[in-house]
Amino acid sequence: MAWFKRKKAKEQVSDIVPKHIAFIADGNGRWANERGLPRFEGHKAGKETIKKVLDRCLERGVQTVSLYCFSTENFNRPKEEVEYIFNLLRAKKDLSDSLIKRDCKFRLMGDASMLPSDIAEQIQKTIQDTADCKKCVLNFGFAYGSRHEIISAVNNLIKDGVKVVDESTFEKYLYTAGLPDPDLIVRASGEQRLSNFMLYQAAYSEFYFPDKFWPDFDAKVVDECIEAYQKRKRRFGKI
Known about the structure:
Blueprint: H1 2-14, E1 20-24, H2 28-34, H3 39-60, E2 64-71, H4 79-90, H5 95-101, E3 104-109, H6 117-129, E4 136-144, H7 146-159, H8 167-171, E5 184-187, E6 206-208, H9 219-230
Helix pairs in contact: 2-3, 3-4, 5-6
């Protein structure tokens, strides 16, 4: 009987899957450098990784996948690199069809006003095209910075004349309004910092730092992240 109880408990733990995983897609350039390739090739490989990670998350039953792909600070990188990243996004003309096939809704977590107009329009079209998808949300962090997000939320609260602010009201002004906070935040490349990512939303998130660059992520690494999460005991301030 004791053996049965232990087995049942183990099975229950293995069934626990985070509802929301947020990935910091770091290390594209270093991945390319280690292979003697231009940094651009790392960004190209990183783009292909998104599909592999999203598909495995869908297979495992993750309901929201956030991807931190381009920060507000990344605008300070060399102009040629920034333009190459933008062109990778421009080349993704079939994004809507790809997401609709997966029944995945697209959300932008970022400031579209900072982007070239054609990219902003493309993103808006994808948001509209996938509005009725229900299986999963892809929360795309592009032109995103958490401090920028928080300050924008405060300014919009002031603009709307809100006098009293509680957590519920404040969260409606964040890019992630209506989405659950991430259960698990995963940073690629082995670096162990948030780098201005989801500072408000990460209050009770679990963290995992695989020693792999983002282009090396695949279904196996996603499973490793979920397994690490399953071993955690979340208390949310309780005993």
